[in-house]
Amino acid sequence: FRQFSDAGSRKEHVKITSEPKPGFLERLSETSGGMLMGLVTFLLAFYLLFTNEGRALRTAKSLDEGLSLVVPLDSIQSVSQQNEGRLVHLAGALSTSKPLFDPSYGLSIRAVKLKRNVEMYQWVEYEDSKEYEENGEIKKETKYSYNTEWKSEVVNSRNFDREIGHKNPSAMAVESFTAVSPNVQVGSFVLSKGLVDKIDDFKQLSLSHLEDPHADVTRGGDYFYHSDNLRRPEVGDLRVSFFYAGLSGDDPHLGSADKVTVVARQRGDQLVPYHTKSGDVLQILYPGDLSVEEVFQKEHQSNTMKTWALRAAGWLSMFVGISLMTRIFYTLVDWFPVVRDLVNIGLKAFALCVASSLSLLTISAGWLFYRPLWALLLALLSTVPIVVAKSRVLPKKQQ
């Protein structure tokens, strides 16, 4: 069943599908598949939590080792053989051997990276679904709406529920690309590929000082348009914008060259990765002029944030895994609304307590080889959720 409407350029229609309400055996079969997925998620959580603690401690030790060994350079204009093979710290303006350019649009810039971003005006489909039960059947009402938008990727209209009237081109006539300077330096030192990859603070390039490159291309703001009418583009029209990262020379429109701070190993006139005794690799780059202490403080903060993010992901993975594995108890009683709701609350509380306890135990196991006292403290802390849960159950039994 479909209903169609057209409000301006936005088109929409509604489709309703129905299917018989699944029986007990069918729901039980779906729950069994969910249990298998839950088991995989549950085991993955152990691996994620355990390896994350080892990674975090290894990174922290490597940073402490690097801070104790790093040598600040007095000058970046000359290469001293005394620092060969050592971890060095330097700061200065970026420089490149030659500018990056895009001959198709008559554009050039002295920068580490130049990105051409191409967007095409296309149809986009949106879905909004809701399910409800009616006459013993499960019905799904899906509202499909269509709108035209600028998109960087080709939207495949063949997957639309209604392709007629919403057909997109299968490819773009102009492609996006990112050009990277083959030689990037700070003073007399050449940056390794890993350091160049860290220069990714892209800014949009203003096109106000440029002319239209071709007769079929029109400049509008900071975009080049392949369109007959900028105010009313048609599906298939293109617009092109440019972004740059790491300005490497003084530019009358953009300002002076960007400065960066680097901590890496000196090998001749090159700055390459430094391998620590802890098994980590140090090659650090930050925008601006930072001291040695500021660089390593930022690295420690980044390590802490990453550690807690992975801990949260591991706990959530364990919680979801336990919930999926215990879902079968909910399925067995879902015929009785009151019992079903009570069981659902109990299962969520059980998953919460067990996930918290096992997560703390896994984290403590990861610390066992590095910080035994902290590992013991976490192991004791992991019993708190279980003790609290039992303390609430006993008074209820007595009543």
Automatic annotation (TrEMBL):
It is a multi-pass membrane protein. It comes from Pomatostomus ruficeps (Chestnut-crowned babbler). GO terms for biological process: lipid metabolic process; nuclear membrane organization. GO terms for cellular component: endoplasmic reticulum membrane; nuclear inner membrane. Belongs to the TMEM43 family. It comes from the Eukaryota. Keywords: Endoplasmic reticulum, Membrane, Nucleus, Transmembrane, Transmembrane helix. Its main location: membrane. It is found in: Endomembrane system; Endoplasmic reticulum membrane; Nucleus envelope. This is TMM43 protein. Coiled coil: none annotated. Pfam families: TMEM43 (PF07787). The chain crosses the membrane at residues 32-50, 308-330, 373-393.
